[in-house]
Amino acid sequence: MDLPVYRLKLLDDFRCLAGDCPDDCCGSDWHIDVDGETVARWQTLEDATLRERLLGALERVEADGREVWRLVMAGRRCTLQDPDGLCMVHARLGPGFLGRVCREYPRQSRDFTTRRVETLALSCPEVARLVFSATAPAEPFARPETGRDPDDPAAILENFVGRVLRARAPAAARVVVMARMLVEMSRRAAEDRLTLDGLKGLCGNVRKPVEAATRELRSGRLRPDSETAGRFWTLVYRLTSVGKKERIDARVTGSPLARMFEREEKSESDYAALGTEVKRLREAATNAVRALHPDPAGRYLAVKFTSSGFPFAPFADNYIAAFLFAVLPLSFIQLYLWILYDAKGSLEPADLVNAVYQTERIDAHSWRIYRYIVDNPAILHLDRYEGCFGELL
Ligand code: SF4
Asked: Using one digit for the tens of pLDDT, what is the confidence trace for 342-393?
């Protein structure tokens, strides 16, 4: 059966910047696997020198319990790049001889259980620029209109998430409403009393909970205490910067706040100091971040949710894990911008693009975050730090 296709409207607008790319994907220190079909084509090339050169750039490694061919890196760069930065395969043989990953990136076509999603990876700077440009469509994805089952829980959830994202309210209020609904839904499911009618009831009204969260936000009731905030932002920093910190602007990773985050042993008062410092940075940078885009958080979540399969394909059957997979990188993007503003005293649109694509690049589209969430189920208790979502823009 053909799956209904959700297609990013910007897909056809994308053009690789190639030699003009500010941070090309051939130098990103990623694991770039080469599919067996491509290796077989390289093995039959008539030009023996070129054949040996290409095959010499491959290594056989084990990944996820199976052996794969992988491109060798020299430092962060692919060894098949010419000295002038051009891809040798592309230049000498044409795009048809590239491995599938290189041929398709940043385009992604992913089949979830009930949907196919055709999208672009936000880890490419040109994709991030397109997504946050003033002319990008307000609704990022074209969605099929037919074949929707009104009793399909995934469709009910998706409808709810879409309406919340489109609500005219601060992003923080919208994120809190989604978090609260997921917490309640999960609680009922754990008690084995989540019915279809109950789900429809939870998802039926968007306006009232959004208005209530907006009121709480504006009256200051949706603010975490400093220690909770310090613990939350430490988690956000650690999750998104472990391992590949060099991917992130050095002004962010070398900042006094980053050094505080990285200190291993922390007391309660250390966390409280961190929470207070983040609050100071956020308040100082809020207007500058808002000037970059009218709704950066809503735009990011609208693309990230659908691209990662939320809510119609929850990770490990866990909607909260899938939700956090998008919200934690968003939190880091904001933290990045707040620290950057503190370092340089201003922000420009390119800073938002950099914050997005560099965050997405940390570990090949942030799958590290997903693994961390699944391995640390305590993170799934959203209600403990819902006030921290009130600090989002
Ligand atoms: S990161 Fe994007 S724009 Fe840059 S070289 Fe790769 S695909 Fe092209």
From this structure: 999 999 999 999 999 988 887 655 567 777 777 777 788 888 888 888 888 7
Query: From residue 44, how far is each of 55, 89, 94, 103, 223 by CA, in Å?
Result: 11, 14, 16, 19, 63
Cβ of 21 closer than 6 Å to ligand 1, yes or no, is: yes
Q: Which residues form the domain of 83?
A: 5-107
Ligand 1 contacts CB of residue 24 (under 6 A): yes
Q: Are both 242 and 379 inside the same structural domain?
A: yes
Write down the pLDDT at residue 213. Answer: 95
Residues written for the chain: 393
Closest residue by CA, ligand 1 atom 7: 16
Q: Is residue 240 domain-resident?
A: yes
Which of 10, 13, 16 has the most ligand 1 atoms within 8 A of CB, as the residue to mutate?
16
Residue 322: CA atoms inside 13 Å, Cβ hemisphere, count?
22
Q: Give the chain's domain count.
A: 2
- The per-residue pLDDT for range 141-178, each reduced to its tens digit, is 998 776 667 788 888 998 999 999 999 999 999 999 99
User: Are 224 and 160 in a shared domain?
Assistant: yes
The predicted model scores a pTM of: 0.90
